[in-house]
Amino acid sequence: MIRPPFRSPSLRWQALGWQALALAAVALIIVTFARNASHHLAARHIATGFGFLREAAPIPIGESLLPYTPSVSSYGRAFLIGILNTLKVAIPGCLLATLLGTLIGIARISPIPLLARLAAVYVEGLRDLPLLLQLLFWYGVFQALPAPRQSFRPLAGVFLSNRGMRLPALAWQSGFGWILLAALAGLGITIVLARRTALSPHRGRRLAAFLPLPLFPALVFAVTRPAIIIEWPALHGFNFQGGMTISPEYAALTTGLVLYTASYVAEIVRGGLISVARGQWEAGAALGLPRAAVLRLIVLPQALRLIIPPMTSQYLNLVKNSSLAVAIGYQDVVSIADTTLNQTGQAIEGIGLIMAVYLTISLGISLAMNLYNARLAQRAR
Amino acid sequence: MARRLLSALVTVVLALILADIAWHFFSWAVLHAIWHLPENAAHAPDTDLCRAAIGHGACWAVIREKFRFILFGFYPYDAQWRPALAVLCFVALFALSLAPKFWRPSLILLWIVILAVVGVLMWGGVFGLAFVAADQWGGLPITLILATFGLAAAFPLAILVALARHAEGLPVIRMLAIAYVELIRGVPLISLLFMSSVMLPLFLPTGWDIDKLLRAQLAFVLFAGAYLAEVVRAGLGALPRGQYEAAAALGLSYWQKTRLIVLPQALRHVIPMLVNTFIGFFKDTSLVLIIGIFDLMTTGRTATLEPAWQGFGNEVYLLLAAIYFAFCFIMARISRTLERRLAAPHQDIEEPA
Amino acid sequence: MPPIALRRWSGCLAFGMILSLFLLASLPLAPARAAGSGSPTLDAVRARGVLICGVAGNAAGFSLPDSQGVMQGIDAEGCRAIAAAVLGDQHKVKFVPTTTENRFTALQSGEIDVLVRETTWTLGREASLGLEFGVINFYDGTGFMVKKSSGVTSARDLDGATICVEPGTSTELAIADYFRVNNMKYTPVEIQDLQEIHNAFLSGRCDAYSTDSSALAGFRFTQGAHAEDFLLLPELISKEPLGPMVRKGDDKWFDIVRWVSFAQITGEEYGVSSHNVDSFANTTNPDIRRLLGLEGGLGKTLGLDDKWAFYVLKQVGNTGEVWNRTMAPLGLPRGLNGLWNRGGLLFAPPIR
Predict the structure, then answer these.
(1) How many domains does chain B have?
(2) I want to staple C315 with a disulfide (CB 3.0 to 4.6 A). Which of A191, A204, C84, C342 is the partner?
(3) Which residue(s) pair with A244 in the sheet?
(4) Subunit contact B317:A136, Cβ cutoff 8 A
């Protein structure tokens, strides 16, 4: 820490003065901006406030996780759909980017020269091109798929066309909620048990710890017996009906984000793996632990400590980059806010909402990762 | 033995796939490509020939027709040697800045001189050059200007913010610095650009109409400032404590200490990280597409909107990709070399997004 | 190290600066305007010597840069006509490309003098934005285009269809209304970028592409030999009168924008074009004499040079010439955009 020259108590007034000045300058800027804005808005007869969120939104929305009817549902609901659409990209995006990035990171230190070289080309190539360009490319690729009538059918009931991927879906029954809950409970208990038995020499005990995971939901299913109805997609009129869809816009955005972010994740993973000294593996083996246990209990925790902080940044980047959706027609929160402020003129409120949403997501991810990181650091001590 | 066999198998399969892709690309980009179009009845290039070749042959004629618009946008056609020269100035500036030989305080002077030369070339109005307003600029110079001026203007800001974040005994200033950095890094660049394009005019007094490019530049400076502040902070953090103490022992004042001892060392540490951050800015300038500023990405996409030339986007995208790649790849390579030479501290600085 | 006394002063200095900052903040918001023509916009344009005109910059036929980077299209010509009338030189115009989001703020904030950006005249926009439409420079309507191979011949057949549409436009509102009223369902694909939206329709991502019918006709025309594969459905589901916008409260400027357009219509009506305008110097037709500023002194009443319409017609031409340069190459029929006495809607009030 560098100390500014305010240590002597006689100069405390001075420190106070400068801080008050900084605060006043910031306050002044905010007050001036607010005054100007209210002046301009009054002159333009634009009402401020978030009242418009309750008004009916005439904007059409292509894909939504909630029921929505243009001109009937409210702007507030449209926003909510936008937020959900952002999360729908961000969460699987983070998981897939981690998975792919790890694989490529391992490929980069592979003993097969061509594979290692290819992984290197992948990392270099994707990092040095603007993500926007890559997204446009992927959107073009997904549009180049055949029309619904000529769609590919890689599996029974799966249709791949320029309308996206159509999959059979399980019709939701009220009993599913309980099964999901049971599965979550099973997962929790498994984690606790697995940690307790990790060092146990008995293979049977280590395996038994994983039992609650399948057992709990199976038990609830056997008791409640909800009907299982699978909706199969079928071509009807212009498009497929039934089942669930992965739209080309969603696919392009997720693919682009995952591939781009994976190139950064790969470097982080490679760095993490390289940094764990060889002696650690050997020491683990000398203790008589199986190889998998060495990886899980010795190497990974050390590598993870190096990997987690930069990974947090990558997750944050992925979330923020998902805002590029607006360029390829995926209706994320930015796209919907953008259309809203265009139709209502509520620019300040619209942009304010966008920022609030991203700040919340960013802070959430930072907080979760920091907690995880703190736990790792504690355990490593 | 089995392992070696597997390795050979993977290599062969990969090689075959690569060869197939390469052949298809070669066939499209070279064998069946159309480089030149004859004129039609209206003395315009007859693009129907290209249209017939869509799918199996590239239409490089679109690049031939549009490359000057893509590179320089609305800049007066006859004066386009000026932005071309400005681009060369930028390239020279980057080349010099990346050579450790030139890392002297006079480098700052060089930046000021070259950026001034760029300004004179682009604006004109002196030395017999006709005046060209900023809204007529476009293409590659805009991309370079946004990234470079963004860096140049954000740098002092970043140093101040980083110092503020490091300042003990000034809790309010520290809090303000933290709020600024975290707020900016928590939101996507697009929202800042929207803010500059839609909201800023509302915030400013009537009659202060700031140029659209300048507003985008402001958003970039704000954005870059937050990310660079983190880079500089990493440098400050990497400095051994003894340096601070030694400086204090010499009886130097805060600013003397900072200027003579702390900053020179801290900044040297973070040069590779600075280059990486700059590469990020360079790529991110493409987002101004969304607020309608004619940077390289926007001019490229506009070029294929003219009815006669619609449908040849792939060729233009390839050109754009090649230009972005050339700049980023070379800078990334140099940055990696620098990193190895300086053995920089491993700090976790996120790329701007 | 500065002496302690001086350092202590700096604390006072800081407080002093706060005080002066607040004094600064209490200054009036808007700078006082010097007396001039009575139109702040006209004065600003004159003082600047250049008209700043907001356009789209990405719409063929309306405003799109050519290979030399020169803006072409009916909106661009509209800007040039205003520049010719106000400054006597059609080249004294600076085009500012705007997006659908920032177009209104750009005009509201004074960044541009006039917005000529294929913007639909609606009550909502005129009542709530503090802006107003000067005149209609293009009569349009929302239409649908489909591939002939789809077998669709009417918009009523589009139930369940996927439709490509540009977000933030009046088109998306018109479609939402149309499908709701007719109790039909559709899936929107909202793409902002024109090229992307064209690609999406051509590749079959959408069953129909909906936008202003002029743009659809233009799009079909650009498909060359494939134009026959596409069908413009007969229904126009909304009226889309497009026109230039100005800020409210500057009536003189509003008058200029509107009458420049009327002068071009009048020019076409009387057969005065850029080619023959000089030959009317000795005309006896009083209407043409007033139009060209040979008598009546009407330009002065607008706050312009008496030869304002002469400059417009000489340098830019009449509505027919503009049409032939901009829309005709796209294969658009004149239709509603023709003169009133030839089946169109162009009808200018008399210049007298």
Answers:
(1) 1
(2) C84
(3) A167
(4) yes
Nearest CA in chain A to C128: A45
Closest partner CB to A316 (pick from B244, B324, B350): B350
Q: Report which of B149, B190, B167, B341 is spatially closest to residue B254, judged by C-alpha positions.
A: B167
pTM score, whole prediction: 0.81
Nearest CA in chain B to A135: B317
Closest chain B residue to A324, measured at CA:
B190
CATH topology for the A75-168+248-380 domain: MetI-like fold (1.10.3720)
B5 occurs within a structural domain: no
Span of C97-111, C200-214, C259-273 with lowest mean pLDDT: C97-111
CATH number, domain of B151, equals 1.10.3720.10
Render pLDDT for C167-210 as a digit per residue (tens, 0 to 9). Answer: 877 788 888 889 888 988 888 888 877 778 888 888 888 899 99
Question: Using CB atoms, which residue from A15, A314, A316 is nearest to B170?
Answer: A15
Nearest CA in chain C to A35: C29
Do the chains contact at C176 and A70, CB–CB below 8 Å? yes
3-state secondary structure chain C: CCCHHHHHHHHHHHHHHHHHHHHHHCCCCCCCCCCCCCCHHHHHHHHHCCEEEEECCCECCCEEECCCCCEECHHHHHHHHHHHHHHCCCCCEEEEECCCCCHHHHHHCCCCCEEEEEEECCHHHHHHCCEEECCCCEEEEEEEEEEHHHCCCCHHHHCCEEEEECCCCHHHHHHHHHHHHCCCCEEEEECCCHHHHHHHHHHCCCCEEEEEHHHHHHHHHCCHHHHHHEEECCCCCEEEEEEEEEECCCHHHHHHHHHHHHHHHHHHHCCCCCCCHHHHCCCCCHHHHHHCCCCCCHHHHHCCCCCHHHHHHHHHCCHHHHHHHHCHHHCCCCHHHCEHHHCCCECCCCCC
Output the pLDDT for position A8. Answer: 55
Interchain contact C212–A (C-beta under 8 A): no
In a domain, B214, yes or no: yes
What is the domain extent for residue B123?
31-343
Its ipTM equals 0.82
Chain A nearest CA to C101, separation (Å): 5
Q: Is the pLDDT of residue B210 over 60?
A: yes
Measured between alpha carbons, how far is C341 from C328 in angstroms, rounded to an integer? 19
Residue B52 lies in a domain: yes
The single residue listed with the structure tokens 């006495």 is C341
Cβ contact, residue pair B350, A313, below 8 Å = yes
> Nearest-CA distance from C79 to chain A in Å?
24
Chain C interface, best mutation among A19, A46, A143, by max C CB count within 10 A: A143
The answer as to whether B12 is a domain residue is no
